[in-house]
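Q:
My hope is that you can spare some time for a protein that puzzles me. I hope you can help me see how the letters and the tokens relate. Thank you; the sequence and its tokens follow:
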Amino acid sequence: MNQKDLLEEEKVVRKRAVRRGGGDDISEFTENVISDAEIEALVKNMKGVKGNKKGRLIRLWQLLYCKTDENHTIGTKQIIKYFAAMGMSVNRKTVKDDVDTLMDAGYKIHVIKTSQNRYYMEEREFQVPEVKMLMDAVVASQVISAEKSNELIGKLGGLMSNFQAEGLAEQMFVDFRRKPVNEEIYDTVNTLYTAIAKGKKIAFQYWDYNSDKQVELKHNGYVYYVSPYVLLWNDDNYYAVGYSDKHDKISQFRIDRMYSAQVTEDDAVEKPADFNPANYTKQAFGMMNGDSTVKVKLECQEGYMKDIIDRFGVGVETKPLSHNRFEAKVDVFTSPAFYSWVFGYGGDIKIKGPKKVLEEYRGMLTKALE
């Protein structure tokens, strides 16, 4: 790096320091990255790691990974102080050599070259926006309990620097009203994966709410035996899909409502060669649940093209009509779920044919009014 580039880098660092409230004093900016108390805590967490070069590299990697990012650098002096707190004597050359070793191993560490070099972890396996999206998915899930959500958010935060994790944590809000109280779901998921891996059946009971909103086991505690094939996420519910001995066919069960699931010694019923999870999802959930598909003609208001595409895919057959409307031809199972979906648009999406489907829809509406 030439003198001009070095000066430009220095300006960038000064600007970052100002944004953090560190004034124009670069030494204050770098030395505040890690306090003596934090050094003590990090040292405590690293107990059991040997003080040889390999152990020292692990300690240095952890320090850079947890305590630095593009807005928080650490200087050579602080690194030396960090190792001194562990009774390890290092110097500027040692620090530089160890950083070089980590970089040679593939770690993206940025070096700001000055009389006292400064360093930060430039690249991680996951970028901040990626971690944020994963955190939001955890928070939004109605399957993951509030306690587990907080635990997972903490673990995801470990993929970033402490500063980045703290910044994202301030933006997180877990709505306890929408979270389940059943913590057993995690053991159930583990049981299901174990059974699938071993090719065994599982045994469990199934619960539901009664009219008094009380939890009760279905069919007086009947024990279901199922050969699990796959776990599917649909409409924010988590399902185990497999061959059910009771139903004598492939069925789905909500995992959060399975109770006391255990792997049995019985071999699972072999999964059909033509079983396709994607096709099963279409057939078992929502509007694809029925005996056979029918091509239905829909007349839609112009503003609902996105809804049609979201539901039936970008390949759906459409053509423009007059008066800001368009026609869509969709292949569906004519189930109550499909009719309910159409009804939800209050006439902005209408069934125009075939006649049999239109009559069936009218019959359902009439029955609902009786």
In short: The mean pLDDT is 82. The chain has four domains: 3-121, 128-178, 190-270, 285-369.
